[in-house]
Amino acid sequence: MAKPCKPQDAQSRLEQIIGLGERSVRKNYYPQLRENAEQVKRFRALLDFASDWIILLSLQPFQICDVNAVVCQFFSLTAKDISNGRHRDLMRQDPESSFCELMHHLKQLTKHHDDNEGISSEFWIEHKGTQICLELTCRLAKFEGQSFITVVGRDMTERKQHQQSLQRLLNEKEALLDNALVGLAWIKNRTIQTCNRKFEQMLGCEPGQVNGRSTHDFYENAYAYQAFGDEAYKELANGHKFTGRVKMIRQDGAAIWCELTGNAINPNAPDEGSVWIFSDVHEHMLNQEKAEFLALHDPLTELPNHNKLQQEFIRYSNDLANNHMMAIVSLDLDRFKNVNDLLGYTESNQLLVRIGQRLQQYIGRAGIVSRQGGDEFTVLLPSLSSAESCLPLLNRIHAALMKPFFAAQQELSLTCSMGVAIYPQDGEDFDNLLKRSGMALFEAKASGRNTYRYFNEAMNEAANETLVIELGLSKALELQQFELHYQPQIDLKTGKLIGAESLIRWRHPELGLISPSQFIPVAEEVGMIVAIGKWVLEEACRQVKIWHEMGFSDSVIGVNLSAVQFTSGNIEQTVRDALKQAGVSAKMIELELTESIILKDADNVLEKVHNLKQMGCRLSIDDFGTGYSSLAYLKRFAVNKLKIDQAFIKDMQHNQDDDVIVRTIIQMAHNLGLKTIAEGIEDPATLELLRSYHCDEAQGYFIARPMDQAAFYEYLSALE
């Protein structure tokens, strides 16, 4: 048994034992503790230098156990401020703070977290007026029977901004592609890999319906697919861009014209990938086709026009067999203006369409029907054995038009006039033949219409003369080539001179003296007659003033007026100006009207005639008896004199009918209070016969021929 030690010995023993323990701890435990402490210190430094947030949460109770430095820096707090439950004080002080938002979010995030699987959450938090995006990752950890949550927060703001920018660019690109005005497609081995929405819309497909389909599905046929592909991929293989137009077929079967532009990704293997732009050129192509059609066809009847007929003429003339001929037939509907007035513009146009169709039906393959304009058609007969072999066809044309047409509840039978020119005998070029068939047509119309004429050289000579006249008229007034001739008129009772009729002549530098019957119709047609008529009036007024100054104070000058002057010009003002310019009175001129003037727009002419009468002008009806004048017109127009046409005067001695007509006109005129004048008197017997019938006045070759100004002055001087 051990012996108890003394107190002082016990204390000393205890100190020895403790000393031994301290030495043992120092020797065995302190180095390990120091090493552990250093590891903790290094780990803590590592956590504090990490850029990610690190938070250790306990679940029971829910509080922050520890945080790293980046969390503290973000909230401008220390770890002591927020750990071990002190975060609650901060939350009570500022419940709207960003720290408070974080704690609420973490509490919700970890509420039901009872496994070892990590959970992630995206959390946006405001910091100094800037929104920060944190990716929070939580993982459950258990230690000594307690549950902890480690939270790692990573600042994703910059990445989010990059993602948003990238997404925005992708969205903009997608919107740009889908809203592009052209279709875009990536094609590999002639199969559509991907495309934009516009391309799908062009082909009438739903979204995604095109991808994966062969382009063959959208071509008209296998030939079009193969031909376009061969040409396109040949260019792509050469490193070139390819552009071409092709008709494609939509999903609903409708055709659409597209312009395709493609580029190969790798020219060495263009089939492996190419990008194509599809432009909708359907309307453009339709308009182009329409424009090309209208360039060669009449827009109303859709028959070939002049240009198309010329092309066909050239084609057939190049292939014409030996000893064969061609004919150009110019066709004009007789008096179609009357039909136009009757039916109106719209119905007349529809009638022209049906006429064109009927001509095509009756002519068939024997010729080509063309519309030149208005009621004028041209027929090309491309293969004739002789000039006469087209006669049966001309007769068929007449028969076709005679067959009734029904328009606007009217039954119409039409006739036509035709002119024929033969290739090559009448000409070897299209324009010359067309011109000559037109000359023959003019001759057919002049021959009473409803017939045909072949061209001959006499027509060409007449046409050339007309052309010379037409071209020369425009300069004739300016070059003072017109002159007036005067044919005296006498009183049959006294034999004295009462005046003269002014007759215009044209002294042409090449053709010599041209009579009015040759150039007046041309002047009316080209619109020169009003200006010429004005010059005649002015010159006539100037001359009659000279006659009066020479002592023939009762003399009157007769001036012929054209119907065009009444319809196209201001005849009253023209007469007024001419009288004023010459300084003569209206009673010194006698205006001669033809019956055609009276019959054309009678009410308008009547008003102008009354105005001229009120001015004091004398009025006579020229060539009376040859037109359609009636007693009613004579009464309404209140003219002063009737001029008996020379056609009745010339043979009245030998033709009883003419004699009766002359006597009747004279008697009727006297009963109406009108004077009469006979023209065309060429012998004394006729003059005496007219005197016996009490005709008032006379003119003709027997009395005096028409004279130019100098000769007429001599004639007047001889009378003095």
UniProtKB/TrEMBL annotation:
<dbReference type="InterPro" id="IPR000160">
    <property type="entry name" value="GGDEF_dom"/>
</dbReference>
<dbReference type="Pfam" id="PF00990">
    <property type="entry name" value="GGDEF"/>
</dbReference>
<feature type="domain" description="GGDEF">
    <location>
        <begin position="324"/>
        <end position="457"/>
    </location>
</feature>
<keyword id="KW-0973">c-di-GMP</keyword>
<dbReference type="InterPro" id="IPR043128">
    <property type="entry name" value="Rev_trsase/Diguanyl_cyclase"/>
</dbReference>
<dbReference type="InterPro" id="IPR001633">
    <property type="entry name" value="EAL_dom"/>
</dbReference>
<protein>
    <recommendedName>
        <fullName>cyclic-guanylate-specific phosphodiesterase</fullName>
        <ecNumber>3.1.4.52</ecNumber>
    </recommendedName>
</protein>
<dbReference type="Pfam" id="PF13426">
    <property type="entry name" value="PAS_9"/>
</dbReference>
<dbReference type="Pfam" id="PF00563">
    <property type="entry name" value="EAL"/>
</dbReference>
<dbReference type="InterPro" id="IPR035965">
    <property type="entry name" value="PAS-like_dom_sf"/>
</dbReference>
<dbReference type="InterPro" id="IPR029787">
    <property type="entry name" value="Nucleotide_cyclase"/>
</dbReference>
<dbReference type="GO" id="GO:0071111">
    <property type="term" value="F:cyclic-guanylate-specific phosphodiesterase activity"/>
</dbReference>
<dbReference type="InterPro" id="IPR000014">
    <property type="entry name" value="PAS"/>
</dbReference>
<dbReference type="InterPro" id="IPR035919">
    <property type="entry name" value="EAL_sf"/>
</dbReference>
<feature type="domain" description="EAL">
    <location>
        <begin position="466"/>
        <end position="720"/>
    </location>
</feature>
<dbReference type="InterPro" id="IPR052155">
    <property type="entry name" value="Biofilm_reg_signaling"/>
</dbReference>
